[in-house]
Give the backbone structure.
Amino acid sequence: MKTISVRDLRSKSAQIWRELRQEKDMVVTSKGRPVGVLSYASEANLERTLTSVRRARAMLGLLEMRVRSVKTGRDRLSLQAINAEIGAARRKRAR
């Protein structure tokens, strides 16, 4: 996947927009580190593209929560312990 710097995005934006049509996706970097992704979308597929991106982010978030639960041992909590945690969080929020 092609990468472009934030500086190039500012100074060569017309060229980048043309290339994006062919590349489909580009990684935007700042100081050599990824900070975003440009993804080509047409009027015809904009809503489907946004829905797909949102679903992918949700799946990544879920995966991160699962990994964290295994690392902390919370993946082995009983249903009763889970409900107790939820109750405690709700009581704390209500205060």
